[in-house]
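The freezer alarm interrupted the setup, so I double-checked each line after restarting. Inputs confirmed:
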Amino acid sequence: MEWEPDRGLTARMGIALTLVAVLPVAFVYAFVFAMNTVGVELLAWATDDPWNGHFYANPLVVVGAVAVGFAAQFVLGDSVALRSVDARRVDRDEYPDLLGRVDRLARVAGAPTPRVAVSRSAVPNAFAIGARPSQATVVVTEGLLDALDDDELDAVLAHEIAHVRNRDVAVMSLSYFLPSLTYLVSIAAFYVLKGVFYVGGGLDDVDGDGAKGVVVAIAVLVVSALVTLAISALFWLASFLLFRVLSQYREHAADRGAAAITGDPAALASALRVVDDEMSDAPDRDLRAIDGGLEALYIAPVDTYQFGDNRELLSSDIFPATHPSTEERIERLQEMVGERA
Amino acid sequence: MTSRRRFLRGVGGAVGLTVAGGLAGCGYRPGGGDVRWRASGNFSTFPARAVAVTDGLVVTVADSTTSFDIDREEWIRGGQVTAYSTGDGTELWSDQHGAELSCHAVGDGGAAVGFDGTIVRYGADGRWWQFGVGEPLVALAVAGEWAYALTESGALVAASDGVERWWTDLDAELAGGDDGSGPTLAADTEAIACSVGGAVHCLDPSGRRRWRQPEIDARRLSVVDGEVFASSGRSLAALGGASGERRRIGDEPITAFAVTADAVYGVSGLELLAYDRSGGRRWATTDDSASGRNRPASDPTDYQGRVAADSGGVYVDSSRGLTALDPDDGRVRWRVGNRSLSAGPFLADSGVLVAADGQLVCHYRDDGS
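Predicted 3D structure, all chains:
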């Protein structure tokens, strides 16, 4: 099977990059707009003074700040991702077979040989990180190395190398910015609300002007927090669009790439089935160890159902659906098997 | 530490960097009417005419006040002059006299008070000189470093640096005009105008008499660029500084007015009117006196207070609070809630000053200015 450039993926990466750049700036200006509409009215009511001016955000500073945030993510993103899954980079002396496979598959794919890192997690999974193909790192868990046979392991590694070759890793890494931003802002607003109601419950003995001041402060905080939550929710939905544009398509593209590299789509289908089954059987504690917010990068998603009823899943909290269903991917891979036959 | 916390810490660092960087370029740009500063005090105790603003100073004059002298351990009754900064409302200086004040004037960066036949002229820094006229004083004006005083006998006296510069007898009947208004005095560096005995007199700063207009009984006088503006309560007239030639400003009775380089703004009835300096009307706030059940008022604001203006804006006390209007077309730019102004508006470099609710409040005139 020949490696074919995927124009659909390229177009989607272009759209995703545009959204990645525009949405955080729009997020900031949405708050500026809210301050200049709801905010000034609220301030005028609370202070009994006119607020006829306007809040502003210097566009150059906002764009610069977003750029700095992206740069920080580029510079620190790899180490943050590795630390979050307790992974470390390994060399040929420690894992000669694994590195040999990666080297061979990268040469077949025509991609620079990525570095390799191994996570101590017992849950089988893998992902690729790196701002550029030449700086890419393929991360596998010890659980993956234990669970898969040779062909299945090759298929998974080829899938990750396909991500590197497709250059979608960097775009996906940058895509984390907005949902992370909206998540953190929402959490802050939530704790403000929680604090307000906690403090509000202990004000029974406040009266007169003090009570009026407290009521005004509570009203301002509650309205501010609700507006913040509303804006954050709106932009979280926007980031959902961003993930829909790229994340699911890139998985299918990497599946096709893996099939092209190994010539064995059945092995990848088998590997996906094993990974999905193993994750369903893994203890919640082990699952949470890889639920570090890197959902979109994994070869297979950490799904809600794998946690049972007592769910506390960061990936699903922050990020919208990142992967097509494993069944759908397996079906497509089996279609490729049929085409090859 | 769980992977969840590690991840959030990493991403939070990048986001925090972004937010901190973004906040550096963020802020609030005040708009017209926003409070620039507020100074507490007993400003509500002063009548409107006892608070005035001149270059960099807010001056309050209490003609008669009582205070306790700690050194002498006794109550003292007399007049008091206090100056505050127009920059932030802080008190700059204050002076108390052992006698009640008979008249006062504020202008040209200072003030003057009269009591017991004596003029005391204050500079912006509170330094003063005094000159004993020897006759009871009924009106004062200041221009440049000079002070002008009208005596009870109808003499106009000019003094500076504690020295008499000239003295002229106006031969006036000081009983006042038909409406019972008292004598008034106004001056700038080009002319001195005095309304006394039912006539307006104009003199050079050197003391030379220029003209006398016997048909005008002015309750309020103002000298702007050498031209005299006289309001009788029934009409407003401009009198040429050189000849005394009379030019009526509008046909309406004007109760309060302000003069700028090219326009005159006056309050008549419940309206604010704008005129050219030549007297032609420019615009008027909508007169809603004809409004009825089926014709709602287009502008329910009653403009019946004091007015201040310059080329940048017109500011007037109204039934809906301090209101700023565009000098070109009378469009309302902003309003500051409903509050009763005990004094003002006054224009200062820092904004529009009013005394409201016992406080001295400075509002921004326009965006950030």
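Quick read of the result. The first helix of chain B runs from residue 3 to 24.
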